[in-house]
Design a protein that fits this description.
Helix content: 40-55%
Protein name: Mannonate dehydratase
CATH topology of the largest domain: TIM Barrel
CATH superfamily of the largest domain: Divalent-metal-dependent TIM barrel enzymes
Number of domains: 2
CATH architecture of the largest domain: Alpha-Beta Barrel
Enzyme class: lyase
Number of strands: 12
Catalytic activity: D-mannonate = 2-dehydro-3-deoxy-D-gluconate + H2O
Cofactor: Fe(2+); Mn(2+)
Largest sheet: 8 strands, parallel, barrel
GO biological process, one term: D-glucuronate catabolic process
Length: 396
């Protein structure tokens, strides 16, 4: 297995030497400055690749191995194969990456909002902070700030009463913070920041699109792009929904084992793969993570390894330390290692410690939410320890 690290570029505050010091060898990055829907050029990709891989004397080599992500435009999610221009631009970006020998692409198909959290600095018992999704605060946003049409029908009477009490006690800054956290696009998001009116308009544009329709649109997209990916030797890895359940009345279609099985059956191309994210899938108690890894082992080309802790009835959760929470990381890594042993080294599974607590010196500086250096360093070290214990020869 190969140790990855998500890097948001030279302005992100984490240097490539920091990545080397963490022990990672493979960079996970993207051209975040290119507008969603615009094709990446070979020259743009080459420039970023050169920045990553031009190794100073005496430094260890880094390789840009995974793209996370090429955003899928909203038009594709809403209209599927009819969004021909947007799909053509996506294919052009994939071709530019393949021309630079970057052959693993992560993407998601979450409509309107990408990964979603209500709190970015939830204080843990250690004094470190973590990201959190609070169901009650999400209801506050949906019912009282967004004021989504028909939203009340999706919440119990008890939920509505709690949300009303919480909203009544909130000040202007608390409302602004909650709105920013949900609507303004978290780091690495493949959706655009939205004002409240624009948010409502986006939701309205999805009127009438249920899970079956959204799944069909994803299948149409894959039928268009996987033949090219097969020819290029590219592996596409679909990231799970985060959280793995419907939000804002919108369907989500990559939340369970059955969801992935349906997509692999509909598009059996070897290019149609999975980003195996234990944090996203692990939010659902009915997802058996080792079983999912075992069933789809040959489809896993990229893994996000992190843990979450479900609170109360499970609708609220927070990011746990990598070896804590509701994910049996030892069992997960045992399955991934079993698959990795079957592969040629060039096809080894790339994993990264995903998210991480804000801790130590990172508490005193501006950090990218979800991606503090020290918390991810701790996570990678812990994951590396498990791998060494299970198979001392496993790390490439």
């Amino acid at each position: 297995m190969r140790q990855g690290w998500r890097w948001f570029g030279p302005k992100a505050g984490v240097s490539l030497d920091n990545v080397r010091q963490a022990g990672a060898t493979d960079i996970v990055s993207a051209l975040h400055d290119v507008p969603i829907g615009e094709a990446w050029t070979t020259a743009q990709v080459q420039e970023r690749k050169s920045m990553i891989e031009s190794t100073p004397d005496g430094r260890s080599q880094l390789t840009w191995s995974v793209v996370e992500s090429i955003p899928i435009p909203d038009a594709v999610k809403r209209t599927g194969g009819m969004a021909k221009n947007e799909i053509a631009a996506w294919i052009a970006s994939m071709e530019a990456l393949a021309a630079n020998d970057i052959k693993v692409i992560c993407y998601n198909f979450m409509p309107v909002v990408d990964w979603c959290r209500t709190e970015l600095d939830y204080v843990t018992p250690t004094g470190s902070t973590a990201m959190r999704f609070d169901h009650n605060m999400f209801a506050v946003f949906d019912l009282h700030i967004l004021q989504r049409k028909g939203a009340a029908s999706e919440y119990s009477q008890a939920d509505q009463e709690i949300a009303a009490e919480l909203y009544a006690a909130m000040g202007a800054q608390e409302i602004a913070d909650l709105t920013r956290n949900i609507a303004s696009a978290l780091p690495g998001s493949t959706t655009e920041p939205l004002t409240i009116p624009a948010f409502r308009d986006k939701l309205e544009a999805y009127s009438g699109i249920d899970a079956n329709k959204l799944r069909q649109h994803l299948i149409e997209f894959l039928l268009a792009v996987t033949p090219v990916a097969d020819d290029l030797g590219v592996k596409l890895t679909l990231h799970p929904d985060d959280p793995p359940r419907p939000l804002f009345g919108l369907p989500r279609i990559a939340s369970t084992e059955a969801d992935y099985a349906a997509l692999f059956e509909a598009v059996p191309s070897p290019a149609n793969g999975m980003c195996y994210c234990t944090g996203s899938l692990g939010v659902r108690a009915d997802n058996d993570l080792p079983a999912i890894a075992r069933r789809f082992a040959d489809r896993i080309h990229f893994a996000h390894l992190r843990a979450t802790t479900r609170e109360g009835d499970g609708r609220t959760f927070h990011e746990a330390a990598h070896l804590e929470g509701d994910v049996d990381m030892v069992a997960v890594l045992r399955e991934l290692l079993a698959e990795d042993r079957k592969r040629d080294k060039s096809r080894s599974i790339i994993f990264r410690s995903d998210h991480g607590h804000r801790m130590l010196d990172d508490l005193n500086k501006e950090v990218t939410p979800g991606y503090p250096a020290i918390g991810r360093l701790r996570g990678l070290a812990e994951l590396r320890g498990i791998i060494h214990a299970l198979d001392p020869q496993a790390l490439v």
